[in-house]
Amino acid sequence: MSFIKHVQSKLTHYANLVRLEHTIFALPFAMTALLLANLPTCFPSLNTLLWVILAMVGGRTYAMGLNRLADAHLDALNPRTASREIPAGLVSKTEAWGLTIGALTLMIFAVWQLPLLCKQLLPVAVLILTLYSYTKRFTSLCHLVLGLALGSSAIGGWLAQTGAWQGGLPILFGASVALWVMGFDVIYACQDTDFDRSQGLFSLPAQVGIETALTLSRWMHVGSMVFLLVFAWQYSHSAYGFVGWGFCFATVLMGILLIREHRLVKADDLSRVNQAFFTLNGQISVGFFAFVLLERLSQ
Question: Which CATH code is given to the segment(s) 25-37+44-297?
């Protein structure tokens, strides 16, 4: 019995190490892209769905595991992150490396079951996921790299279904997701402004100040909505036909929740950053997918 409890405890620590629950930010938009890449009355095959999910989970776990390993010494110095699994001694670096390499292997294997274009773009995806963990050391564009990573996952969901670019549709959808992610990552980074400055790290809040960073975050989210609307217009003039009621409701929901997110966080009051970061953005991603799925199921 003690062995079972030990295994359960380790699995919990591994899941917490890579913040497995944060997969909620990326996976629903990849699933949404997978749905949108089909004609309105069609659905992706279970085979494609399975490999996309495994590729997404593997890729995100790899990126987070590498990030935790790269930042372990910084996390130990930061009071906000000192209790994370590696600096707290709950997960060894050897275990973390094993999890990280295993996740990368899963991602590669899953992508290899998808269309040729996905295989060809795999090195680009791995490069972006790897680069993210180190960009904060030399550029405040680290938020852009994270946006590219999650935006690419949405593009990947589309290409997994079509195997082709189909004009600029996947790019427009991926750009919307990328700007959304950049905006909320800037908000999250505001918590560590003083620490980042003390360590010479290049987060946007540390470089330009919290107030200016929050303003830039708002404009990123405005840009995200603009790209989403342009995508809807282009989609409606393609072979797919008009976007349906589900997509429209999802877009309105996203706009409302983004406004709510920026009202929660102020330059002189960061006490509700976690609510803005996790709760509202989780509702955006899951809500968007749910509305599009319900629209497709009703047709």
Answer: 1.10.357.140
CB 169 within 8 A of CB 158: yes
SS3 269: strand
Which two tokens mark 276?
């803005």
Residue 24, CA atoms < 13 Å, CB-side half-sphere: 15
pLDDT grade for 275, boundaries at 50, 70 and 90:
confident
- Structure-block tokens of residue 61: 């776990």
Q: What is the pLDDT of residues 78-116, one digit of tens each?
A: 999 999 999 999 999 999 999 999 999 999 999 999 999
Q: Using CA atoms, how far apart are residues 35 and 55, in angstroms rounded to an integer?
A: 17
- Buried/exposed code over 232-260 (b: 16+ C-beta within 10 A; e: otherwise): bebbeeeebeebbebbebbbebbbebbee
Domain borders along the chain are 25-37+44-297
The answer to which of 5-9, 152-156, 175-179 has the lowest mean pLDDT is: 5-9
User: Distance between alpha carbon 215 and the CA centroid of its chain, in Å?
Assistant: 21
Phi, psi at residue 42, to the nearest 5°? Answer: -115, 160
Q: What is the DSSP letter of 265?
A: -
Contact present, 247 and 292 (Cβ < 8 Å): yes
How long, in residues, is the chain?
A: 299
| C-alpha span between 218 and 223 (Å, rounded) | 9
**In this predicted structure, what is the pLDDT of residue 75?**
95
Query: What pLDDT does residue 276 have?
Result: 84
What pairs with residue 269 in β-bridges?
266
pLDDT in tens, 115-133: 999 999 999 999 999 999 8
243 φ, ψ (degrees, to nearest 5): -65, 150
Cα gap 246→122, rounded to integer Å = 31
pLDDT-wise least confident of 172-181, 223-232, 233-242: 233-242
